[in-house]
Specification:
ten-stranded antiparallel beta sheet; alpha+beta; single chain
Length: about 550
Amino acid sequence: MRESINKLSLYLWTFRYLRPMQIAYMILRRIINIQPKISDNVNPQTKTGFRIFEPISNRHNLLDQDKLTFLNTAIEIDHNHIDWDCAEHPKLWRYNLHYFDYLLDPELHIESDRQFIDSWIDNNHPGMEDAWEPYTLSLRIVNWIKYFASIYPHEIPHRWLVSLHQQAQFLEQQIEYHILANHYLKNGVALLFAGIFFVGDEANRWRKKGMKIILEEAEEQLLDDGGHYERSPMYHSIVTEDYLDVFNLLESNESFNSKQDRLFIQNQCHKALDFLAMVLMPDGDIPLFNDSAFKIAPNPESLFIYGSQLFGYQLPPKSDTKEILNLPQTGYYGVKNNQDMIIVDYGEIAPDYQPGHGHCDLLSYELAIDGQRIIVDSGVYDYQANSERKYCRSTKGHNTVMLNGEEQSEIWGVFRVARRAKPIKPSIHEKRKNINITGGHNGYERQQKGRIHQRSIEIEENSWAIRDRINGSGSSLIENFIHLHPGITAVKENHIVKLYDQDNKVVAEITYNGQVEIAIENSEWFPEFGKRMPNSVIVFSSQTQLPFEMEYTVTKYIH
């Protein structure tokens, strides 16, 4: 009985945040299940002179001769009999097979490409699962059009154009109003591409609908500080590429849009690129907040180069002194100091109506010393309903505090969140030579009113002092986690934990107050989808009365 009540509570709290439009379209899709109608007898015509400046090409070596690799899992491919079902692989892997990102590999030969496209058309009839789902359709439509533009003046087979036209028809009737966020934007981008690539009444409708979505979402999804509102650096990079592609398409085919629209998209791209440049770790890649992993989105450098080629984008000049990161809309704060950097997540878990890529990572951080990541976010392993997914989204999977074994936010399922923690007054300020980041969250008020987690981080030249206070009353178990990069080994010596690199050199020391117990546990880091690496987690814990304060300091070791 209690389990049923708890499950009902999760559903009710999850649905209360949804927009009415999402609920309405969920009902239409799942209960009424209206099937899209497409035309079998079409003779699609393409725009004379359609062009697009060279987009970002395939960057992750997805296809290598007879081997396809997605999410760190490879399969052998028989070009004459491609298995498009791949039922033994997770859904996200199968999605990648149908995206056709591998078409954009400049080293592929046209004959190989033809085999893939012809095989897909022959074996994936309209409405089939995976292949014809709206998000998959959206990525494939854009990839095919980019590819078709790249092989000009080679003739594009008529059956390819018929299939592409049908895919756009199908997508227009399956726009993901029930999901919104980055999925909805992908739908709009695909409709715009199809609407400019083809001519005719349908194409005009696709173009107008796609452009409407793109312009509206550019204002909502890209925050004033330039960050993407799902608070995932990986999805921020994906959306940035989307808007760069849109600008590219509009600039290359000027008769279909206004100069005002192009300028607006350019400004949004510029803002998004500036944000990306600010949050990058010293190794040149993204922090792994929320659903983020390496080698899914384009690498940051390729995005900067793309922006430079399209409209002369230039990276913000690097500071010779400490650089403060103050990104209040996204909720990211931090300090860069040469090759040392800390970045902290004090932001909302996600937009209220779509928290699917949100984690319990409020007040968590990543830390790099001398260009090397030392303290890391756990990353993402996959989007399956398994223990890895649950761990990566959990409070325990982040560098923050867990109270009484309960999550900051009620994460459940693969993409669901019921009641969620809200940040409280995050800020960053400089005091003399030190910089302080402060703030809190109310996630543990589900346990007892007044149970607020507050964290302040004081940053000096070579040290980072993390002070946590849990307000409230009553006996509670407090656990404070520090996840180390796999290349770092922790050794406890009295009230000091020394951190050694792979050359057995001390890179930092962690000192802590004596009112806590300490354990060094084995765990895993998931820097890429499908990739796991053993690492260590330092856990400070105390069964104590609230309110309670604990503090630890990470100090850079100067050789």
